[in-house]
Amino acid sequence: MNYIRHLNAVFQQFSMDSRLNPTHISLYMALFQYWNINRFPQEFYINREDIMKMSKIGSKATYHRCLKNLHGWKYIRYLPSHNPYKGSKIRLPKFDTSTEPNKGTTTETTPEQLEGQALVPYTNSNKQITKSKKAKLPNNKNEVLDFFGKRKWPPLEGEKFYNHYSSIGWKVGGKIKIMDWQAAAENWMLKAKEIETAKPVSQKRDNLKTSKHKNYGQPL
Questions:
Q1: Residues 6+ away with beta carbon under 8 Å from 133
Q2: Bias regions of kind Basic and acidic residues — which residues (predicted)?
Q3: Domain encompassing residue 79
Q4: Tens digit of pLDDT for each residue in 73-102?
């Protein structure tokens, strides 16, 4: 398995999935590292303490919740064990199903791997012919403003969205191309709503616990 293609595909999927938070991604990467250590078998056993330590998750409840989320969202197959002396099993669907050019053979995905696997762009082994999902971008600013208007958002928010992504070439994090601008706009609205509903910090409280009459002539 080409793990670089796999990671590129899975990170592209992460960027478009608004359900994920940093804990989900940290847990997935810990499971991927375990998969890597075991030479990418179809299934492998995990140790909860090791995975929690690698993913920096301190709560068992959070660990199990994120594990079940990743299973439910088809990023992993979680096969829990009720035997205290035997660890649970994990199966990671291969997000990259392209062939391996250096081996000269075609790697076909089995029906078991395809079951529940997230859809990702497919790349042929022939480097001269690349089949990938065509990016869906807005034709102009008015199309974006109309999209925001139909969802009862002010034109200013639509302009912010359009100007931001136009300035960085319609990429997430400056690296991953946006495949569906409407999905990205929905995520933008969700984040804007979260910021709007966030509890403001009290202005009456001295959060830094500093004197209001500090002498700035004194050395620190």
A1: 121, 179
A2: 196-209
A3: 3-114
A4: 999 999 987 776 677 899 999 886 554 444
| 41: in domain | yes
Asked whether 56 and 10 are in contact (CB, 8 A), the reply is: no
Q: How many CA atoms lie within 13 A of 56 on its CB side?
A: 6
What letter would DSSP give residue 80? -
Sign of CA dihedral 145, 151, 153, 157: negative
Shared domain for 61 and 101, answered yes or no, is yes
Looking at the domain assignment, is residue 85 inside a domain? Answer: yes
Could you give the CA distance from residue 97 to residue 6 in angstroms, rounded to a whole number?
8
Residue indicated by tokens 């100007």: 163
Return the higher-pLDDT residue of 175 and 201: 175
110 DSSP assignment: P
